[in-house]
Amino acid sequence: MNILILGSGGREHSLAWAVLQNPKCDRLVVAPGNAGIALIAECAALDILDAGAVVEFVDAEAIDFVIVGPEAPLAAGVADRLRDAGVLVFGPSAAAAQLEASKAFTKSICDAAQAPTAAYGHFTDAAAAKAYVAAQGAPIVVKADGLAAGKGVIIAGTVAEADAAIDDMFGGAFGGAGAEVVIEEFMTGEEASFFVLCDGTDVLPIGTAQDHKRVGAGDTGPNTGGMGAYSPAPVLTDAIAERALDDIIRPTMQEMARRGTPYQGVLYAGLMIENGAPRLVEYNVRFGDPECQVLMMRLGAQALDLMQAAAEGELTRARVNWADDHAMTVVLAANGYPGAYDKGAVIGGLDDLPASSTQMVFHAGTTARDGRITATGGRVLNVTARGASLAEAAGRAYDMVDAIDFPGGFCRRDIGWRALKD
Ligand code: AMP
Ligand code: GLY
Q1: How far apart are alpha carbons 139 and 211 in whole angstroms?
Q2: What is the pLDDT of residues 87-106, one digit of tens each?
Q3: Is 378 in contact with 333 (CB distance < 8 Å)?
Q4: Which helix (H) or strand (E) covers residue 355, if one does?
Q5: Which parts of the chain sit beneath pLDDT 70?
Q6: Ligand nearest to the CA of 212
Q7: 292 φψ region: left (φ > 0), alpha (ψ -120 to 50), beta (else)
Q8: Mind listing the domains of the chain with CATH numbers?
């Protein structure tokens, strides 16, 4: 099977790493890829938002299966165009990708599916939004409706903060994404991520994870794309996962199918868990980054079979071969991230690190220059390990971190603290 993965981050590096372990994979191309991916697979310069160009490439290179990593090509309809051209593709249609691309859309689906989530209002003008905030009080959550690169959510501690966020959003601070605003009840509890594959009808859980969104120790400081993650998430017990499937995920899938827009791909449900009950925070229509890295570490080669089964509508027959293991990934980021960050630092020590089924350094934002790996992104490396316990996985991951020479970078030293203290 000739396989094309679209994307260029640590998520796609880990997908490529898992897919390559499966003997079904004859040839793997990643577009556009990155310096780490180039060490294990072919990379192709391709504008992955240009559906026509992707279809042309797939034809020319006789690609059998396309796996879409990030949300932007999905929202832009790249999966639709590939399916129209008769290509097997893992990833939802643009219509189904609205589950991530529009918060108001997801809220309306939750209403129809009676899925537990935060109470909310949906607004197209500032005055009505502020009147709602005045009536509800603070803390309250103000969200730009559309894709805002993870920055469109403001947790407002006071009514004045909420009003300022509303003015910013309607004032164009988030471009088109802020033309509509959703205002939500502030939910308390512990967050965890639940990953399921969907084939339009059936649903197959493939793992749980928790990530650390804040830049600083103890989950403090500004939000980032994620500074580390681990799997499984102890807070998401089997009983709570069952409840999330029954009350939230399956009803969502049924509602999507009822509307004529069945969902196929991975669904990433961000859940808030309190008193044993899960509520939906948000859906994403892709693997989390860096959550994907820990899921791939645990699933290995079978990830390809599972994604193929989802794309072919054959999930009822698919089974996950679970190992009783744990994985952790630690993000090495460039100094300054998530603000303006340094670029171009040379990273040393990578060649001496053994890559195996229990440890791997996935590249997120790197470039190869004159045979040396340099940091070019905010999140640069995802140092990932597996173990019989989370503590063992953490020990392995931080041993690798300590062997990497990245003077222009930093990481959090407390990834997994919640799970490790129990
Ligand atoms: P989102 O972009 O929707 O994932 O939001 C980013 C983060 O904001 C989430 O991971 C939560 O930590 C937090 N968040 C979003 N909505 C709520 C809510 N209604 N109550 C509490 N926290 C929230
Ligand atoms: N790590 C959070 C995300 O991928 O959205």
Answers
A1: 23
A2: 999 999 999 999 999 999 99
A3: yes
A4: none
A5: 150, 177-178
A6: 2
A7: alpha
A8: 2-93 (3.40.50.20), 125-179 (3.30.1490.20), 190-317 (3.30.470.20), 326-421 (3.90.600.10)
Q: Show Cβ contacts of residue 81 under 8 Å, excluding neighbours closer than 6 positions.
A: 51, 52, 54, 55
- What is the reported pLDDT for 362? 98
With contact defined as beta carbons under 8 Å apart, do 268 and 283 qualify? yes
Phi and psi torsions of 277, nearest 5° = -115, 130
For residue 114, the CA-to-ligand 1 centroid distance in Å is 20
Q: What count of other Cβ atoms lies within 10 Å of the Cβ of residue 40?
A: 17
Contact 284, 268 (CB under 8 A): yes
- Ligand 2 pocket test, pick from 14, 212, 271, 289 with the greatest ligand atom count within 8 Å of Cβ, gives 289
Q: From the CB of 270, is ligand 1 less than 6 Å away?
A: yes
Specify the residue with its C-alpha closest to ligand 1, atom 16.
Answer: 281
Minimum CA distance residue for ligand 1 atom 8? 153
Question: If you take atom 4 of ligand 2, which residue's CA is the nearest one?
Answer: 288
Name the closest ligand to CA 223: 1
* Ligand 2 contact via 338 beta carbon (within 6 Å): no
pLDDT, tens digit (0-9, with 9 covering 90-100), for 387-415: 999 999 999 999 999 999 999 999 999 99
Give the relative orientation of helices 159-170 and 126-136 as an angle to the nearest 10 degrees. 160
pLDDT of residue 147: 78
